[in-house]
Amino acid sequence: MDVETPIQKKNKTAAWFSAMRLRTLPLALASTLTGAFLAIDSVEIDGLVLLFTALTTTFLQVNSNLANDYGDFSHGTDNEGRVGPERAMQSGAITEPEMRRAIIFTSSLSLISGIVLLLISPLSWMVRALLFVFGVAAIYASIKYTAGKNPYGYRGLGDVSVMAFFGILGVVGSYLCQTGSFDFTVMLAAISIGAFSTGVLNINNTRDLENDEKSGKITLAVKLGPTKARLYHLALITIGCVSFMFYAWIHFEWGWAWLFLISFPFFILNAFKVFTTKESASLDPYLKQLALSTFLFAITLGIGLWLQ
User: Fold this and answer.
1) How far is it, in rounded angstroms, from Cα 112 to Cα 40?
2) What digits encode the pLDDT tens for the residues 61-109?
3) Is residue 207 part of a domain?
């Protein structure tokens, strides 16, 4: 997902931390934590499984961030007209060969961590094989978002990918690895996290809309235009909140389990601010705010279910 950390110093260490965009990690972990916490009613949470689920998700997110830095630079999208913070390769601190090696390294870590996760989880071999295929697809998708020829992020398909991998696969996969079984209603929670995560991407793409269009990066925000992209953001936040409310109505008795509602005012505030903020550069703070709100949602959900 395309969320950046500003480069403070043009040295290697700062540039690599910028390229990894560590502020995206709470958002990525939200899907892992949500899926695991929803398993509390069925099983005792396996800490080792949770650890490797979180590691796999983290490696995938970092891999996606590095590949995005590489892809946008190689396609000329990261230029002087870009609204967001300066990227690592754009600054000249990291070369193309260095970034390619880093992407291979993080892809390998994602694959190894994912294999270990599948082996230690209480899954049948058929389910392991299926999740392995989805995991490899997630690694491929994290690279092909903006890198290579004809990247799908340049054709308005980034939102679909985020919903699929950071929402559905992230939440359902984490739940499966804990319980070894599938509950169809968990899809409601997966759609919720996917909608919030897609909202982060949409803010980013709405912020960069003008430069992306000039550079040939046709995101969904470019296709919609600034006004409809903001309406789309309202729809994503609404879908995220309503979808999980349906899940809670089905599964939770009134009490601590509803502690996650603490996070909802922050989602409402984010939707209002994005809709009413017309200056593209002023949208940047709401990327981090929505990512942290999603993480808060996952944490309060876990605390509430533990106290219930």
Assistant:
1) 27
2) 999 988 888 877 776 665 565 555 666 677 677 888 888 999 999 999 9
3) yes
